[in-house]
Design a protein that fits this description.
The chain is an alpha+beta fold and 310 residues long. 37% of the residues lie in helices and 16% in strands. The protein has two domains: 2-209, Glutaredoxin; 250-310, no CATH class. The chain is globular.
Length: 310
């Protein structure tokens, strides 16, 4: 949660960066499919205590709904902003105060609350006292049937950000799962299952190893978006993925670091390597967003490094 409130970049959560993001909630509607249309696969890397991920999920869901009958497969990938949080959680204000100064705590909450209001989202930080472990909540999301994951993610966000519930507690997660029609006992068991929790932590480490240092982060096939993007930007990204699919033979992880202040999207670059290349960025046919200034991307191809400005 420290990074979720205070560690921000590209309108997303990242350690040791200044707050610049917005957040929101999402409607609970189940995905539909239409025969004859190929499903678009979207991956969102997120953490359940990150308020900026909440807007990312909300805007992703809004963008999906705007596509009408186009089927979209959403994969929720785990990211652990604070993997060392103890099982019982930690005092939120104490942790923020120690890292950023007690005098900044109130302004951080105010900033997030105002940002959420822009999207019709209410935050009640007076009720949020604990920064919990998030691996259990990710485990329950992964356990849930695909058709119910969207509703579950939304319910977890509401429980934490508006009711202040400890979403690291398996019993709390069981109740949340039950509220969206899932088996509460089975959800509790999933939140406690050591093998499942270990897999969540491994996935989170894998995300970091590919160069993802902040969330939310979206993957549309061979294209990516980073940060709490507006629904329109996400919709355009999905439509671009449908209109210009990129199929690459390689599947190994790539390395990249993008520095694009004040830009919040990575357009025209994709972290997928060609076969035979140790690490690369592949150019896509996307244009840069309007108003983009000083786009700088650092790319590594084998042992060489390149710096590209726009």
């Amino acid at each position: 949660m420290l990074a979720g409130i205070a560690g921000l970049t590209f309108q997303g959560c990242r350690d040791q960066a200044e707050p610049t993001a917005r957040t929101g909630s999402s409607p609970v509607a189940e995905p539909t499919s239409t025969p004859g249309l190929s499903a678009l696969r979207v991956e969102i890397i997120h953490d359940t205590i990150c308020p900026w991920c909440r807007i990312g999920c909300h805007n992703l869901h809004t963008a999906i709904d705007s596509l009408g009958p186009q089927p979209v497969e959403v994969v929720y990938r785990p990211y652990l902003l604070d993997p060392d949080t103890p099982p019982e959680g930690a005092d939120l204000r104490e942790r923020i105060g120690k890292k950023y100064g007690a005098e900044r705590v109130s302004s951080m909450f105010d900033s997030v609350t105002k940002a959420g209001a822009k999207y019709g989202v209410h935050f009640d930080f007076d009720r949020v006292h604990v920064t919990p472990q998030t691996a259990p909540s990710h485990a329950v999301i992964a356990w849930a049937p695909t058709a119910r994951q969207r509703a579950l993610v939304t319910a977890i966000h509401l429980a934490y950000f508006e009711r202040g519930e400890n979403i690291g507690d398996p019993s709390v997660l069981g109740t949340i799962a039950g509220s969206v029609g899932l088996d509460a006992g089975a959800a509790q068991a999933a939140a406690r299952e050591s093998t499942r929790l270990a897999d969540i932590r491994q996935q989170a480490r894998a995300a970091q190893s590919t160069g993802i240092s902040g969330v939310p982060h979206f993957v549309f096939g061979a294209r990516t978006l980073h940060g709490a993007q507006a629904p329109e930007a996400i919709r355009e990204a999905m439509l671009a993925g449908l209109a210009h699919p990129i199929r690459l033979p390689g599947s190994r992880s790539s390395w990249a670091e993008c520095v694009t202040p004040p830009v919040t999207a990575v357009f025209g670059l994709s972290p997928r390597p060609h076969a035979g290349l140790r690490s690369s960025w592949i150019m896509s046919p996307w244009p840069a967003p309007r108003g983009t200034k000083d786009i700088v991307a650092r790319m590594r191809l084998g042992a060489l490094s390149f710096r590209v400005g726009r």
